[in-house]
Amino acid sequence: MAEAPFKPRDLRAHPPPFYPDYRSTHFRAPSHALLHYAPTATEMAGPVFGQGMLGADDDDLIVNYAAAGQAALGPRILVHGVLRDQDARPMPGKLIEVWQANAGGRYRHKKDGYLAPLDPNFGGCGRCVTGPDGTYSFRTIQPGPYPWPNGGNDWRPAHIHFSVFGDGFAQRLITQMYFEGDPHIALCPIVQSIPDPKGIDTLVARLDMGQTVPMDIRAYRFDITLRGRDATYFENFKDGT
Amino acid sequence: MKETPSQTAGPYVHIGCVPRFAGLRGMYDGQDLGAEMITGEVAGTRISFIGAVYDGEGAPVTDAMVEIWQAAPDGTFAPEGFTSWGRQPADAQGAFRFETLKPGAMGAQAPHILVWIVARGIGLGLTTRAYFADEDNSSDPVYQRAGSRAQTLVARAVEGGYHLDIHLQGPKETVFFDV
């Protein structure tokens, strides 16, 4: 019944804890290297969510904070893709949560004081659960780029934050989706802290004219891959430990 | 295929994951996911699991989000009446509070809570564990792995529960794991 343990995580595929050009890492990066252990029964399990938890407009940021009959301002987009593991297996029934700035690049947060105005009809958060084939989608408005305090003239590329659950807590992932063609991607230390340019490329959503609805909404495609499994990976892995 | 690279949760993770706390009125029927862990009648000891997150200068990490995943008192996960999973924001003092049940042991593993921290400046979510000062942790394999720094994983008993501060950096730096 028990599935094979998760593959070891390739830490080189992720941002290092300390990255000089990203100032917030200076006092938040642990000095010690992460200590490795193979997933135990604890990390192999995780919370289970389902479609039943969702409200009708949870996956529609265009209207889920708007007054009745109103809608958020900005370019209407449909973001969709497939959630898989590293073995290319679709992952059904998994919770994806998203949050983002509005079309002007302003977050609905008391600590965001950017000049761009709040949109009274845009909250900036939503969620969906992957279908039987691992697919997900949500509607939103394209967020704007914005400046951020990092010691210089720093602007974030337009992005949407993603929080993703897998089968086991060891697959838990938070990341950001960017938009094809955004010149700020190459300039942003948060993006460029990912060592491998091919890894960065997987965070860049592509315009998808195939799913774009004429006279209605443009589509962007963003696939997500969580850790896979390795039947040969039994280091320290036995029932209960 | 490679795992999708992680990116920081940024300073506004509370909007997306605990919108009620962040002041987004009416989202998700006013319920923050993971706020309630005890949903029915479950045998065991109710505890508050509290602490705070600090950076390398001792400043509270007020934009952090903390998630926990743990066994129920009987050593199983998510039995009827208990979710095993909790999510809480750090507040203006960097503090978090979970109302949960004391986990049971699982085989060679001593009772423990898996703790996951994300925030601005954290590129890949940080995983650690909380053990309990009033348990024998000495033969737990993960506790042993932490060696001379294992004390950073031990929550101390306080009235009504247990307290564990998390230090991202510095002389009291918590042990973080690559699992």
Walk me through what this model shows.
Chain A has helices at residues 41-44, 189-192, 197-201; strands at residues 35-36, 76-85, 95-99, 125-129, 135-141, 146-147, 155-156, 159-164, 173-179, 204-207, 218-221, 224-226. The longest helix of chain A has 5 residues, at 197-201. Chain A has one domain (11-29, 37-226): Protocatechuate 3,4-Dioxygenase, subunit A, CATH 2.60.130. Chain A is globular and about 55 Å long. Residues 237-241 of chain A have low confidence and may be disordered. In chain A, strands 2, 3, 4, 5, 8, 9, 10, 11 and 12 form a 9-stranded mixed sheet that branches. A two-stranded antiparallel ribbon of chain A has the order 6-7. Chain A is built from 3 helices and 12 strands. By secondary structure, chain A is mainly beta. In chain A, 5% of the residues lie in helices and 24% in strands. Chain B is mainly beta and 179 residues long. Chain B has a single domain (13-167), classed as Protocatechuate 3,4-Dioxygenase, subunit A (Sandwich), CATH 2.60.130.10. Chain B has helices spanning 13-17, 141-145, and strands at 46-54, 65-70, 85-89, 95-101, 113-118, 126-132, 154-158, 161-163, 166-167, 177-178. In chain B, strands 1, 2, 3, 4, 5, 6, 7, 8 and 9 form a 9-stranded mixed sheet that branches. In chain B, strand 5 and strand 6 (126-132) form a beta hairpin. The longest helix of chain B is centred in the N-terminal third of the chain and has 5 residues, at 13-17. Chain B is globular. The chains are: A mainly beta (241), B mainly beta (179). Chains A and B meet through strand 1, helix 1, strand 3, strand 9 and helix 3 of A and helix 1, strand 2, strand 5, helix 2 and strand 10 of B. Strand 1 (35-36) of chain A pairs parallel with strand 10 of chain B, so a sheet runs across the interface.
